[in-house]
Amino acid sequence: MYVNKIAHTYNGVVTKEPTCTETGVKTFTCVCGDSYTEELDKLPHTYSAVVTPPTCTEQGYTTHTCSCGNCYVDSYVDATGHTYTAVIVLPTCTEQGYTTHTCTCGDSYTDSYVNAHGHTEGDWVVTKQPTTSAQGERTLYCAECGEVLRTKPITPCRVTLGDVSLDYKAKTTLKPTVTADEGVEYTVSFSSSNPNVVKVNEKTGEVTGAKKGTATITCTVTDQFGNAVSDACKVTVNYTALQWVIKILLFGWIWY
Questions:
Q1: Whole-number pLDDT of residue 31
Q2: Do residues 85 and 95 make contact, with C-beta atoms less than 8 angstroms apart?
Q3: Domain 158-249 - what CATH class?
């Protein structure tokens, strides 16, 4: 007696996984060994988005990339254009001024030039003090940049005093010749070698004949740097003819 064949009983197994670029395969196998395959659809791409922002000169966009390497670009954004920050460089004594405009991307340009304004004279400064035998020096600096503009020497002070003849009891003021550079301050003082014969005002140089005879008057000039120079003159005191008459004939020495 014959029995009809029974139907295949298939068990399906994925034998090749589908990807986003290739189809997959599913194999169906019966216990008897018979088999067949079916194609599995490709998987959809899985994209990761990377946004490239726009710059001053380049447009922005979004790049979509799948793990398989497939990619596409969209969402374009126009370039932003330059955004400049201005920095003003002021003119100096010797260099012109200007304004520099710099963008965050590094692009820059310069305009608004202003001419250098030249040096501004400051005060004369004593840079080397004179001595009684050697010159000193003054220096003129620029008040703004400090550059040396000019120098000039400081000549040591000098004083000369001429001899004087003076009548008994008469007065006169000595006039010394003082040589000093412009701007150098100094003081003048006087002294007498014999005040009994010639008295002298130490500040004004006024001399008075106190007695017949001769005395030496010294004039001392002291500059602002502490240097002292001096000169001396001889002051001779004599009687006038009338004073001699009084002294000799009328015993005027008692009165005088």
A1: 86
A2: no
A3: mainly beta
